[in-house]
UniProtKB/TrEMBL annotation:
Coiled coil: none annotated. Residues 179-250 form the Transglutaminase-like domain. This is Transglutaminase family protein. It comes from the Bacteria. It comes from Rhizobium phaseoli. Pfam families: Bact_transglu_N, Transglut_core. Gene3D superfamilies: 3.10.620.30.
Length: 295
């Protein structure tokens, strides 16, 4: 088994037209340590201005999170994360997943309600409500003789082919149905559409938030801070195989280039920074990410 060591850096900055006060935020930014997948070697997060209160907790899906509060008025908020992560190669799994018709019986045999139980990833979730249009789209990738894994791969490929990556077409609040009708969007949109499509077929699916190592075109230098946070799909393919991860934005299986930060039912469970504050007027946000493999 081979492994890659990465140095990660992330900056998330917010500036306000009118100073904000009474701000309370929750962050999920630090990569996870996952058995036989990846190991967080070291990591740190700095916040400016310095919070008046700060606490740490583990959420339902077993992700470390940080809650902090800023009482005094502030014109900007700056959050920086640095981490070193080792990502291991994953063996290529043979397809021992059940036929779609047999999957409900395997799901019914799972009595656990632990965070990774498939039961949490079948129905509607905070940002995902079943829609007829996406369900009809999903049925176009099914045949009686296909396994759950084959259907997941077929949907991943079809979404990649049918949708255009366009960062100007959608926002973080765009619904999956709106993105589906546009046939354009970003990784969050493609991930949400694929999750809804899979769930409409009875295949448990969830959201993965993380980082993706990007490689510049031949002859081009890598631009500092040009990477971004990424999203892809987690699919439960039966008791024998368990969970697999596919990236519809790039039509690939998650690999050593994918670094996991959080798992959830949809984006609402894994938002990197979320909170409330007292202010009015507009605000501007900037994000810069570096994913650097160590030689």
């Amino acid at each position: 088994m081979t492994a890659v060591l990465y140095d990660l850096s992330l900056r998330m900055g917010y500036s306000y037209d009118v100073p904000a006060s009474g701000a309370r935020h929750v962050m999920r930014l630090m990569p996870l340590s996952l058995t036989n997948r990846q190991r967080l070697v070291a990591g740190s997060i700095t916040i400016s201005p310095t919070p008046d209160e700060q606490s740490h907790f583990v959420d339902f899906f077993q992700h470390p999170a940080t809650s902090f509060m800023l009482r005094a008025p502030h014109e900007a908020l700056d959050i920086r994360m640095q981490a070193r992560v080792q990502v291991e190669s994953q063996p290529i799994a043979a397809d021992f997943s059940p036929l779609l018709a047999d999957l409900p019986e395997e799901i019914a045999g799972i009595w656990s309600l632990a965070p990774d139980s498939p039961h949490h990833f079948l129905g509607d979730s905070p940002r995902l409500t079943q829609t007829r249009e996406i369900a009809d789209y999903a049925r176009g990738c099914t045949k009686p003789d296909l396994t759950a894994m084959q259907i997941a791969h077929a949907l991943c490929t079809r979404i990649n082919k049918d949708f255009t990556y366009d960062p100007d077409a959608t926002t973080v609040d765009t619904t999956p149905l709106e993105a589906f009708k546009l046939k354009r969007g970003v990784c969050q949109d493609f991930t949400h559409i694929m999750i809804l499509a899979l769930r409409s077929l009875g295949i448990p699916a969830g959201y993965v938030s993380g980082f993706l190592r990007t490689i510049p075109p031949p002859g081009k230098e890598r631009l500092e801070g040009a990477d971004a946070m990424h999203a892809w799909v987690r699919i439960w393919c039966g008791e024998t195989i368990g969970w697999i991860e596919l990236d519809p934005t790039n039509d690939i299986a998650a690999s050593m280039d994918h670094i996991v930060v959080a798992y959830g039912r949809d984006y609402a469970d894994v938002v990197p920074v979320i909170g409330v504050l007292k202010s009015y007027g507009g605000q501007r946000a900037v994000q810069a990410v570096d994913v650097i493999p160590l030689k």
